[in-house]
Amino acid sequence: MKIIEYSFLAFFLLLPLVLADLRVGFYNATCPQAESIIQKVVQKQFATDSSITGGLLRMHFHDCFVRGCDASILIDSTPKKPSEKSAGPNLTVRGFELIDEAKKSLEAACPSTVSCADIITLATRDSVVLAGGQSYAAPTGRRDGLVSNPDDVNLPGPTFSVSEALQSFTAKGLTLNDMVTLLGAHTVGLVHCNFFEDRLSDFQGTGSPDPSMDPALVAKLSKLCAAGKNPTTFLDQNTSSTFDNQYYNQLLLKRGILQIDQELASDNSTTGIVSGFASNGVRFSQSFATAILKMGSLQVLVGNAGEIRKNCRVFNPK
């Protein structure tokens, strides 16, 4: 496992004050093996499917950007009560079984102690490290939410402009640098053809491919998508399974898959950040650790708020 050490003291001084409600080692007394239990489950899954890193990163993002990091994305829909899972952007979110397995092991070791929200946070961190990303200490102490409503799901989409996407991020207290950094998670992400097919042949109704996409990539993806059944491709076509800065280098080569990704390289407000990360992998890794911890602190429930679910897919019985 690749771990890059650096000064955590200086690192945590940069984090928002909201993290005062969370702390590293929150479960040291109540469930000391909690983090190792989660890590083992992630290691097992990663050994057979390294793309799980992208899946967990997407789950974490989609959870935090709706009602805050409260595991509301994990609640199953029922015929009478739909949940966030039934919202369009969440239909392709994956990794739920991994969370279930971790929760089952944690309930056996220390019942009703570790929240599903913290499982998502820690599993995501562990998967990033396994993929070659920088290790970071993740504060815990989140509690699980009591609401999961598909109407609350309003996420930045793949065809957003940089300015439109930034509005979504700033509404959550995140900066332009945070946005460009967190989109770097696409370095290990997968995407279905329906999210980018318009760029291949009829971009914005022009009847032609998106001129900002490398023609060789257009040809490759057109062949893939023509096969039918909405297949997937990697968002980073170079080092697809490694958490590194190559996503940004691909953008500079006009090889971004999603429209929002490619626009990062051409928009005046973000092109410098993209170039900086493309030329300095360590800078990206450190920026990512800071940004994902900041995102992971969004609107968290702590103390006596919310609950600690016994089953991550359903609210506790009243």
Structure commentary:
By secondary structure, this protein is an all-alpha fold. Helix content is 43%, strand content 2%. It has 2 domains: 19-154, Orthogonal Bundle (Peroxidase, domain 1); 162-291, Peroxidase, domain 2 (Orthogonal Bundle). The protein is built from 13 helices and 2 strands. A two-stranded antiparallel ribbon has the order 1-2. The radius of gyration is 19 Å and the shape is globular. The N and C termini lie far apart (42 Å). Heme b binds at residue 186. It is found in: Secreted.
List the helices and strands and how they pair.
Elements: H1 8-13, H2 34-48, H3 52-67, H4 96-109, H5 116-130, H6 162-170, H7 176-182, E1 190-192, H8 198-201, H9 215-226, E2 232-234, H10 246-252, H11 259-266, H12 271-279, H13 281-295
Antiparallel strand pairs: 1-2
Helix pairs in contact: 2-4, 2-5, 3-5, 7-13, 10-12, 12-13
